């Protein structure tokens, strides 16, 4: 029986995606709640960024969960995308 190991950064990214889907939050909404840039949130979710302990606590606070729940092993890879109920500004200005 082969054991598949997953990179801890990718596991955290999958867990965050799972929690966002559970709480119906977009990346933009969660980043806003945590005081992070959305691009940094994207790098965390893709496993490309190694977040500091301060950022992990900000994420747990933004999701309103305990840090242990944030660091739990993800169940499965979430397949559903979450869409915002309100339009999200992408920095464009209408004229």
Short description:
This protein has 95 residues and is an all-alpha fold. The protein contains five helices and no strands.
List keywords for this structure.
mainly alpha; 434 Repressor (Amino-terminal Domain); 5 helices; 0% strand
Structural write-up:
The chain is mainly α and 95 residues long. The chain has a domain at 8-70: Orthogonal Bundle (434 Repressor (Amino-terminal Domain)). It has helices at 8-23, 27-34, 38-46, 53-63, 67-70. Helix 2 (27-34) packs across helix 3 and helix 2 packs across helix 4. The longest helix is centred in the N-terminal third of the chain and has 16 residues, at 8-23. The mean pLDDT is 83.
Count of distinct strands = 0
Low-pLDDT runs of 5+ residues are none
State the share of residues found in helices, binned by percent. Answer: 40-55%
Annotated CATH topology of one domain: 434 Repressor (Amino-terminal Domain)
How much β-strand is present in the residues? under 5%
* Biggest β-sheet description: none
Radius of gyration: 14 Å
SSE blueprint:
Elements: H1 8-23, H2 27-34, H3 38-46, H4 53-63, H5 67-70
